[in-house]
Every structure is written in C-alpha cells, then in structure tokens.
C-alpha cells in the first residue's frame, strides 16, 4: 500500500506538510502507522499547481526519506493545491513512470490500494483505455489504468459518476476472470480547483482516508492545527500528528468533494455493476 | 538508434569486447561511428549465459560509459554467449524495463531501429501480443513488443519465419494506420545456443549489421582478431576497431543464423504481407 | 569539460533558456559546440532563487536531455536569478553530490575546467578547506574544493580577491607536487544578487565564457534576443543560438561582475603567487 | 544501522543466502529483527570472488528489496567467498560510493555501526588516511575511513592488531574533540581467503554479530542448515531464520577469524588507547 496527501487552500510551502509534522509523509515513507505494509520506499512523487494550468510533477524512484532534491523543492515551492505520494509497490516495477501522481492536462491523480488479480485483468482493462489516451499510458501500474478509465468515464464532467462507472468496469473485468481478491481504492483526483477523493473496497477493507479543514493550516512543534473558518482542506491517508483534534475519518464507501471552503461526503453506491453484467 | 553486439564461442570475459577495443561498445555509447545519432546514453544492458538455462540480466538507466558496476561485472563474468546493448531512445522513457536485452525464459532479444509511427500502431500491436505473454510486457518500447510478437509468431521453433510474420504484422498495422515512416529492424535473438539476427527495413535504410568469425577472438592493443578456424562468432552494429581485416557487413534484407562454427545468410523476403491482408 | 549558464534579471521561466533555443543547454548536454568533449551526460543541476535567501537546488545523475523532472521544474519555476549546469566528468564519480551548482548558505557556485594533476594535490587542497566548512564537503570533485577555498579566501566580502588567492593556493599546491598539467577555471558564483564569473587558465587555454545583456531576454524560434536597455544579464559557456547579435566573449584572464544592469570586466592578474612561494 | 553477511566455503549461489531464507538479507532490508532501525533501504552492495584475485563489486542506491539486477546477479553468481550488505545511513548521502562493501586490491570491507560525533572527527581522521591511499577515498562515510585506517594500521599483515590500533586512533580523535557519543563497530574484512570480523563498542552496546559453520550450508523451506563437518562459515549481523540450531552469537568485545574450517574468537582488548593519550 501507499500513503498520500492532498492539500487545497492558502498557498503553503510543501515542506510544512511533507517534513515538519510528527507523522509527516516523509516519516510515513519510513514507517507509517495505519497500513498493512509499514515501509513506503518504492518511489514517491509530488504534483503542484503554480501559475499555469498544467501542474508541475517531480517523481523519483528513491525512498522519499533520502532525497535531497525533494527536500529542496519542498522548501522552495509554495502552492495553493498540491499532491504528495509515497509508494509501496504491489508488484509493478519501481520506475518514475509508475510513481504517483499521474498527470493528464490540468488533472492529477494518485491512489492507494490495488486491483485484486491485476495480472488476470490487466490486458482487458488496458483495452478499455480510450484510444485517444492510449499513448499516455507510459507506466505499467493498475493505478495509471484507473486514472485513464476515470477519464474515459467522464471524470472531467462528473467525477462521482466516473468513479462509479470505473469501479463497475473493474469489478466486471475481475468477475469475468474469476478473480476472488478484492478491489481496494482510496484515491484522489483534481482539476487544479477541486479535490475528488474516494474510499471504496469490494470487501469492506478499504485503506483509511481522513480529512481536516479550516481557514488556514499551521504546523508547529510537529503538530497540525487548522484555524477556525473555511478555505483550506487536507485530504490524506492518515493523520499527520498524534493529536485527534482536527482529523475526520471518511467512512468506507464514501466519495468526498472539497471545493475550497466546503467538504461534502456522499455514498458511492456503485450502480449494481455486477448484476447488470450477468 | 542504438548499438549492440552478440557473442557466441569460447568463454570470454565481457570486458574484452565491451571495454578494450578502439571502438568498443562503451566508446560507442559516447560517440558511435555509423549511426544517425552519435550518443547512446539512454541506458544499457547486458545478458549472459552461465551455468543455468536462464540467462543473467543487468540493465541500468545511466550511460554505459560511467557505470562502475558494469565495469566490475564485465571484469568478472566469463560467458560462452552474451549480448550487450547501449541505448539511444527513440521516444520512450529511460527505465530499466525499456533497456535491452529483453528476456523470456531462456531467450534474449535486443534491437536497433524503430517502428515508424509507433504512437499510431502501439495499441494495435500490443493487442496482438499473445495473452499468455501479456504480463511479461513490463516496459513500453516498440522493441519489447517486437520480441513478444516474434515469440507469438513461432520464434522458438522457426526464427526466420517468425521474423517474416512479425514484419508482416507490423507493416500491416502501419499500413492500416496510414503510417508513412519506415520500419527499421536490426535485431538479434538467441536461445542460449544460436544467434538469430536480422537487418531489414521497409525503406532500404536499415541500421548497419556486421559479423566476424574464427576459432577464437583476441583483443590486443585495441584491435580485434579472430584466429583461423571456427567456433566463435561476433554479430554487431558496427566494427569494434578501425581495421577492416575481420568484419563482414550483412546486406540489407538478410537474416543471419550463427550456430557456433557456421554463419548462414538468407534473404528475408517477407511473404507479401500487405497484399495478403488487403 | 562542462557547460553552464547563469541568468540574472526579470523573473524568467528556466524553460526558456534551458530548452527553447537552438543551442540550448539541454542540446549542449547531448552535443555542445565549443568544447573538447561534446557530450555532457554525467549529471546536471539547477539552482534558483525564490522567495527565500536560500536558493533551491535540483541535481541528478542522469543526462539532462532525458530527465522529465528537469523539464517539469523548468516549466514551473520562474526566477530572477538561476544557475544551470550540465556535467562531463573529468574523472570523479557521477553522484548528485558531485553535480553543480554547489550551495553554501545563500551562495551558489558552478565550474567548468579542472585542476591539473588533481590526484596529486587533492589531499593538500582538502586540508586547506576551512575547518568550519569541512563537513559541507559532501562530494569529491575539484570544483567543490575550489568553492570552499573561495569561501575561505573571502568570497563573501571580496570575490575578485578571493578568486586571485584561490588560484594562487591551487597553483602553489600544483607546483609543490610538480604538476605540469594546467589549471583551467571558467566559473561563476553568486550571492543571489550579483554574478561573479571568471575565465582563467595557467596555459592560455581556458574554457570559453560569454555574456549578453539588455532590458529583457526574449526567446523566439530558437533565438535569444535582448531588448534595448539594462536589467538582465546572461553569463554562459557558449552562445545559445547561431546568431552573433548579442553574444560577447570574455577574454582569457578576466573576471566579470554583473550587478543587475551593469557588467564589468577586470583582469585577474594573480598576485604573482608562484614566485611568492619559491 | 545496517545489516550484512559474509560467506566462505563451498561455492554457493548468492541467491540462497540473500533471498531464500525466512529472515534473508533482502527481508532484513525491509524489516530486520535485531536493530534499532528496522529499515535498511539506503542502498546495498555485494562483493564476491571469482576466478581473479580482484573481487567483483555491485552496489546501488535503491533499496535491495526492489532491485531486479541484484536478483539476477544473485541467481547467476556462484562464489566461494562473498559479502553482502544492506545500508541504513547514519547521516551521509545515499551514493554508490557510500555503499558497502569497500574494495582495496584483493580486499573487501563492510561495517555496521558508527563513529560517534563523526562530524567532529571526520577531518582529523581523514588526515590520518595514509597518503598513498588518499585517492581511494571516493565516498564520505565513516566506514570507508575505518577501512583505510585499518589498511594503514597493518590490516594486510596483522588484522587483529590493525583493528586494535584503528579503534585506538578513532577513540583518541573522539576524545580530543570531546565526543561523548560511543564508537560502535561490527565489521568484517577479507583478503579473499579469510574472514576477519569484529564486534566492538565503547559503550557495551555493539551491534549484534553471529556465526555458523559446517561442511556445507543448505537452504530449504526458508531455513538454513549446516551439514556436519568443516569447510563453510557464515558470519553475519543476525540469524537468517527463526531456528536456533546453528547460530552462535559473538560476544561484545571479540575479534573473529574464520579460516575455511576453523573459527577462532579472541578478545579485542584495545591497548589502553585512552590513558596512553591523556
């Protein structure tokens, strides 16, 4: 499994959330608290929005904890919306192309989870990638496929529906191949303005998902605090500190939208994909 | 384009052919003599046969000229059959998985050339990869696809025929997509016993291919010499020294088989693939 | 040898100077025009000033021409003062720590050249690094030593004098060890406000150095143009295009200072270091 | 801290000891059992003796657990004497040059531990490296310095005495700088024939050291077994399986010599270095 965080709000230096808290993402790369695999050392990535629509992307195959470049970028870059991800491979190679986040035009996507029986359904799912997107398939992960299916299923116009359809596509393919392992999907996409996250699994064991919000986030003495108000939101795999003050857990089976000052949750309820297929 | 060499014969330290000649493969990585692109710095790889049927593989993304590990392995490893390749990317990413040679069971394959209009035919050709092989597709190059199509077309039983069919498959796909750029293919495959090489293009401009043979190869003062007799053969992109004594050029459109002490050449003559399809 | 450029002036996206000109630094990494070694593929680095006094640093061991991260950072980062360097090793290892620029507090330094007989003088020169700086020695190049000697010799208060003293220190050490190879030094340092460059050698064969200036630099159709006026300056190893319009060559043996709108040149004239020692 | 193993005996494929046991070195890279830091993901290395006096060396900066090259080399290489090491940095950079083992002519050396207050004593200790060896200093670790001091102190003729003198040198330097952190040193050197290991610390908290011996080592179902007799020996940081059958712990403060069929232990008893200095 992996760990990730997405931030949207007042421009913030990446360093604060990546390096400065007790359970910072960098610390999670070495030893995270709430996942089956503790070490997330198979590469990492950050994506951020600057003055252009196209976000920047820095991904590398080293463990995040020993990358001086990441530290320097995190010190320099201030951004109103950024993604960061530390990877624990579920089988595919450690290449930059397999590191999250993935980018398509002004969109970013990152993921923690896995498609059960990926070896059995990979070919079928790759063939469902829209032809126009096919050459953007530059890696080999299940996560990159999910992103492309999402785009094909209307991510740009109706993210909640795109998640539903993509889950249905994947579960249909898994069922067709007799896969019994689960689909688990705790992911986040953004168009540079809103965050669209999901916590879903086919076996009620989706990786954790949390959020916190307020007017501004402040990191002091390793602890994260949000000032009263609205405008900033953090969506992430697990809390960044040991305090319970600000963290809200997203329940299994829910879809989250964060639009600057408002977080909304709605059940995923996939449109009965399996019976629809049989 | 890339540069490569394949050796079969008396066990030989890789170092002799990779590092010790005037125009050694390592020197070619920095500045080769007979190709449109002089620098082959987008990764490299060696494959070699030891005491097992499965060959060893060492590939990395650095330029070959500054890799201490390659130097050390080349000093240590003696092998009766090995491949070495320095890469100049034609567009796909610099990852280990995109470096040659590629391996399938006891087989190795490497390539210099390109499928014209790869962006247009990639999807179609990936779908022609045999299903049983699909999960061995761990990179994104056209070269890896060619290897998989070769296997699907009978490489293991009739290499010459597999090359012919694969060329037909690729040219058919290119024609279907209206690709006007050429297919160029100077490649080599081996099962650990024989070398099966080809120099082919759809526009009479295939990358060069040479061979040399004799009882034993000797490298002295930067020059390669083969002693009288049979038993060792070298098939490669370009001569390793400035002497013309031992190097034979393979003509465009020819298929080469090297079986220890005998090199045979036969025309490729693709079986009129295009009209057969129309 | 290496290639580098330093820019100071109106905030500019790195991409313009690194990627968009005919003879851009990235093109120079693959094949530069005016150096003894054409390929600069042994790593690269960029250093830039943002909103803090401490500059950012991104260095990696890949050739610059195939690094997607560099491309993305260059697209995102706008800076009023930045350094970029592509490296051709003169013997030391390809590690990030050996890539330029080097950083000390708010200072950056980069270099093209070499200390002749470095193997013979390295130990002596390392012992001349000020003790307080010694743990900042994290690589093994002669260039990093030069930077530390410069700091020890007063770079922060009188750069021209620091260059003179450092040249004297190095030439003294070379003479003491009987080194006959030359010292060659085409380098640039900055405190984030001014550029302090030098073109010097002990054998009248220093690597080239150029500059161009104007109100603003504009890159169009692969060509660099400076608008009339003052405010922006570019100091670099070789011109970025084939036009001769804007490039001025710095003569051998000169020290250059660029202070926003003014470039001044003065002879280095080392303070007769050699006779002083004998 | 790090983890390592040294094998000497009947030629053995590296794969058996690196990959096949319950607590294999590769598993230890992800999560070792008996160290303060569980993850050893800051690079790795193997050194092995083949048909030449000079050993082979393969080191890289990735975590050992996700390196396909290491897996392939371990499958191919059979050797009568090899070292393997997984690294957890104690502060110095993750470069190949900082990965163990280190090589000098026909010697290899690797280490787990640290020189307390290294920042304070590094300069002093580097100046004690014999001048003739100085240019072999290509990294920045304390471990590489220890190896060079050992050579300077007679490692090639009297290893036990060289360890003693080197410990004295280091402790003298630490004392001179007022360092209060301990020296900890669990290391192994070899000339290609004998293993010279040590478990020492200045605070009675040296990293663990174990050995096992017999006629041959056999790995089955994840467990290591030694057949009755002599000829093979394994010296290592921690047992490779959960069985207690074959593993002997080396007590703190002991020096171990393994000469094919015989393991001897003797107390280190440094020659009262500290009082000698005061």
User: What assembly state would you assign to the polypeptide chains in this entry?
Assistant: homotetramer
Proportion of helical residues of chain A: 10-25%
> What is the ordering of alpha helices and beta strands of chain A?
EHHEEHEEEHHHEEEEEEEEEH
CATH topology of chain A: Glutamine Phosphoribosylpyrophosphate, subunit 1, domain 1
Helix-strand category of chain A: alpha+beta
Mean pLDDT of chain A: 93
Number of domains of chain A: 1
Q: Looking at this structure, what is the CATH superfamily of chain A?
A: Aminohydrolase, N-terminal nucleophile (Ntn) domain
Q: Name the CATH architecture of chain A.
A: 4-Layer Sandwich
Radius of gyration of chain A: 17 Å
Tell me the number of helical segments of chain A per DSSP (H or I, 4 or more residues long): 7
Strand order in the sheet with the most strands of chain A: 3-2-4-1-12-9-13
Give a count of the beta strands of chain A, DSSP E runs of length 2 or more. Answer: 15
Protein name (chains A, B, C, D): Class II glutamine amidotransferase
Pfam families (chains A, B, C, D): GATase_4
InterPro entries (chains A, B, C, D): EgtC-like, Gamma-glu_amide_hydrolase, GATase_2_dom, Ntn_hydrolases_N
Keywords (chains A, B, C, D): Glutamine amidotransferase, Transferase
């Amino acid at each position: 499994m992996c760990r990730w965080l997405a931030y949207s709000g007042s421009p913030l230096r990446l360093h604060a959330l990546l390096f400065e808290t007790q359970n910072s993402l960098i610390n999670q790369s070495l030893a995270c608290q709430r996942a089956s695999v503790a070490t997330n050392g198979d590469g990492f990535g950050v994506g951020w929005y600057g003055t252009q629509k196209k976000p920047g992307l820095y991904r590398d195959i080293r463990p995040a904890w020993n990358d001086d470049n990441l530290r320097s970028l995190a010190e320099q870059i201030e951004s109103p919306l950024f993604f960061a991800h530390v990877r624990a491979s579920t089988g595919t190679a450690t290449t930059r192309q397999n590191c999250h986040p993935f980018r398509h035009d002004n969109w970013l996507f990152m993921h923690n989870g896995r498609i059960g029986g990926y070896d059995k359904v990979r070919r079928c799912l790759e063939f469902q990638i829209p032809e126009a997107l096919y050459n953007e398939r530059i890696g080999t992960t299940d996560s990159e496929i999910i992103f492309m299916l999402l785009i094909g299923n209307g991510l740009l116009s109706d993210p909640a529906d795109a998640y539903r359809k993509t889950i249905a596509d994947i579960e249909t393919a898994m069922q067709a191949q007799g896969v019994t392992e689960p689909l688990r999907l705790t992911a986040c996409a953004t168009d540079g303005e809103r965050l669209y996250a999901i916590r879903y699994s086919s076996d009620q064991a989706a990786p954790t998902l949390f959020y916190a919000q307020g007017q501004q986030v402040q990191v002091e003495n390793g602890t994260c605090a949000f000032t009263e108000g609205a405008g900033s939101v953090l969506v992430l795999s697990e809390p960044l500190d040991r305090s319970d003050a600000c963290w809200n857990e997203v329940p299994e089976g829910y879809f989250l939208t964060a639009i600057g000052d408002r977080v909304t949750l709605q059940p995923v309820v996939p449109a009965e994909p399996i019976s629809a297929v049989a």
